[in-house]
Structure formats: C-alpha cells, structure tokens
Design goal:
The chain is mainly α. It is about 80% helix and about 0% strand. The chain contains eight helices and no strands.
C-alpha cells in the first residue's frame, strides 16, 4: 500500500467515523489519563469506552475486539471495587508495586493461555462468523490487553508494558479494518502508556522508600 493510499484511507476513515466512536475514543483517553494519576475515575469513565466498543465491534463482526471490551467491562467493575477498598486506617488496600520474578512467570502464563485460546477460536470462527479477523494479530492484541487490564486492577507497574504492546499492535490492526479514528486513538494511548509507566515507576519507588523509612523508625 502506497503512502497516497494510506493517506486516502485515513481521510475516508475520519469522514466515516460516527459519533459513538468519537465518544468512545475520548472516554478512553480520559480513562488512561485517570489511570496514570492513579485516580479511581479510570473505571467509571472507562466503562463508557468499553460498552460503546462492544457495540461497535459486534456491529463490525469483530468478535475478538468485542470479547476484549467485554472483558474490560467486567474487570473495570472488579478494579473499581478493588481500588476503592480501604483498611481500618483508611489507607487504600491496593497500592502501586512492581512484580516479583514469580509474578512475572504468572503474567506470561496468563498471556500465553489467552493467546492460544483466542488464536484458535478466531481461526475456527473466521470463515463463518469473523471474516474481518486476523487471528495471530487479534490474539496478540487481545491477550496483551487481557493481561494489562488484570495487572492494572492490582496496580502493578508492569501493566503498562502490556498496554504498550497492545497499543503498538492495535494501531495498524484497526487501521486495516477501517477504524481509522480508533487507530489514531491507540497511537495516543501508546504515548500516554509510556508516560503512565514512568509515573507508576516513580510512585512505586516513592512508596518503597517510605516503607523503608517507616521500618527504620520502628
């Protein structure tokens, strides 16, 4: 595909973008902004994004994307409850931390299970139900997103690595499926995910230092 063809597809895609997709994109950007600053509004705002994308994905016969956004919706409710929890001293129960080596293995296994399941499901369903599917790419984008969302509910710094992988894959994936504005959306999310990673690394390190100081005082 030449540059002129890519440019023309981009222009045509923007012109054909409906208001639900615009609303979903702006809600998604706001949700990622709230997650970067560790604000619980990430979840209610994110629900607007995921519910609209379930509708758009089903309408476009993109069952892989629909399943991802259904998962986002369920995990957003779970994360909302988890982030709101406080102990008797009114401190949040879930705090930003880095994963251990053992947890990294669990994360990779979590990703692998979903990748294999989604890949074979989409390969089987492609001819009859999901003609727009690209099994290997859809499976990778979905499995990384599933992993990232799971880790975000636990406030793990590593969630941003998985989000970065999801965004990199989704930029060309949505473009070739003619969801051009959504493709631009994932480009914006990629940039925001890098800043989110930096911010959470700082917060994790600050919490670790505060814990060390508290231990020394005791």
């Amino acid at each position: 595909m030449s540059f002129q063809e890519i440019y023309q597809q981009f222009i045509d895609g923007i012109k054909n973008t409906g208001w639900p997709e615009y609303l979903a994109v702006f809600a998604g950007i706001a949700s990622v902004w709230f997650s970067r600053i560790e604000n619980i509004l990430v979840y209610p705002v994110g629900l607007i994004n995921t519910i609209i994308y379930i509708y758009l994905s089903i309408k476009g016969s993109l069952l892989g994307e629909a399943s991802v956004n259904f998962y986002y919706t369920v995990m957003s409710i779970y994360g909302w409850v988890l982030w709101a929890k406080k102990d008797e001293q009114q401190h949040h129960v879930v705090i930003i931390t880095k994963a251990s080596a053992k947890e990294w293995v669990q994360h990779i296994l979590f990703f692998a299970v979903f990748y294999v399941a989604i890949f074979f499901s989409l390969t089987y369903l492609k001819k009859s139900f999901t003609p727009g599917a690209i099994p290997w790419a859809d499976a990778f984008a979905s499995a990384t997103a599933f992993t990232g969302m799971w880790l975000m509910t636990k406030k793990k710094v590593e969630s941003w690595y998985w989000w970065i992988a999801t965004n990199i894959t989704s930029i060309p994936l949505y473009f070739v499926k003619h969801y051009v504005f959504t493709s631009v959306y994932y480009l914006i999310l990629l940039v925001m995910a890098v800043f989110g990673l930096i911010e959470w690394m700082k917060r994790s390190e600050l919490w670790r230092k505060n814990q060390s100081l508290s231990f020394e005082k005791k």
